[in-house]
Amino acid sequence: MLKSRWTFLTLTALAACVIWGNYFFSLWPSLAKSLKNTLVFAGAFGLGVGIYRMTRQHTKFIQSRKENQWIYSILFLGTYFLILILGLLPPLTRNETFLWFYYNVGLPIDATMGAIVAFFYIQGAARGFKIRSTDSAILAVSSIIMIMRNAPIGAMIWGGFPIIGDWILSVPTTGTFRGIIIGTGIGLIAMVIRTIMGKERSFYGRDN
Amino acid sequence: MSTQSKISDFLKDKIQIVNIVFILTIVLPILYPISMPIPISKEVRDAYEYVDALPDGTLAIYSVHLSASIWPEIGPPFTAVLNHIIEKDIKIVFISDAAQGPALIERGIELIGGKSKLGEYGEDWVLLGYLPGAFEVSLATFMEDSSIYSKDYYGNLVSELPLMSKLPAGKDADVFLGNVGGISTLEPVVRQAGPYLPIVVCGISSSGYSLSMPYYEAGSLVGVVPPGSGGAAYEYMSGKPGLAMQTQVTLSFPNLFMVLVIILTNMSFLLKKVRGGT
User: Fold this and answer.
1) Residue A40 to residue B137, Cβ atoms within 8 A
2) N or C: which end of chain A has fewer CB within 10 A?
3) Which of B68, B153, B265 has its CB closest to that of A125?
């Protein structure tokens, strides 16, 4: 019965009715609040499932001595559980050692990974940003104007960069994204209606 | 293989030369700072003037989406606005939709001079922390009922914090300050907080900045402080130079170099086409 398609559909429809009823007609406030809180618990539960899956996967790599992988799996699991245990020591997530690792190891590594993206940008510009058509020409010119609009040196080089850049942001960008946002919203409504009616089956593991 | 031949092999790939020059455009302005004029755009000015006009005693919800990877973008505007707010008697309730948010909020508070600058904890400011799950749902619930947080980030019962007695629901605040990562965190803020409170975006990633313009132009956002020069402009207007002004010069030369690379790439491509090459 739990794997039955009708179980999923019934639960989905009931949950939607409770939330919609609460939002539009202020019905069942405590039940709606409980449902919303359940999502918070589901998120935390999902985290636990993720930890289990990651541990199982990397333990398999270590047991099978997978080439070019098993040493990194040992390093990964060791670091993973060290930080997890430190974070669970009282006071939770505010343990001094945990915070030291976060500020002095985790944060610089995370910021470095973000900063590496800049090199991908510059290499992409050097290799691939070639004007082959009218559309790519418009893209290149507007990109240059926006880059110079955002950089303080742009206004020093030519006062027109901020003016034209502001126009590009206010008019074509805003108009285009308004259309995309409206289209996305309509698509989302259609998806919700399909889910409620049972026509959207991908969320419980079956293809449409 | 000798060192010289290794270097010459390395430099045969022109991309490596581009990378080296790019690194120099970042490092040299840091070592030899140059002062530059700071452009102040309308959305930054609107954000500053709105926050500046907030009366004493205003209760603000400050939703902070910070993670280590976007701290360089959003951290400076966050500290810029916080530095402005501490001049005024504004009560702040911090919430976060990122697991790393609370730790980075504390870091930002340390950068502006420490927790004492915000006033007394529980009376003048509260750090509620992070809730797992979909941000859209947790924010929607918070706006209707703030008891979704039973404890704050420091383990205190929320019901025992005097400031939270003034905030039975998020919609009872006076203003919503959002420090958002991108469109995926901006849209929940506009949808869930927008119907109740004026929203000032006090920091947004560069990818989300242009996507925030439709909401700003439509009036859903009072103002937007973009990364880089936006944070610097805010610090300039508030008269408190900080992180953003220090880093905004380092944006100029890498950006200029990128523009030069695009132009040179296309000149080379055009020349090859004219000469009949591929």
Assistant:
1) yes
2) N
3) B265
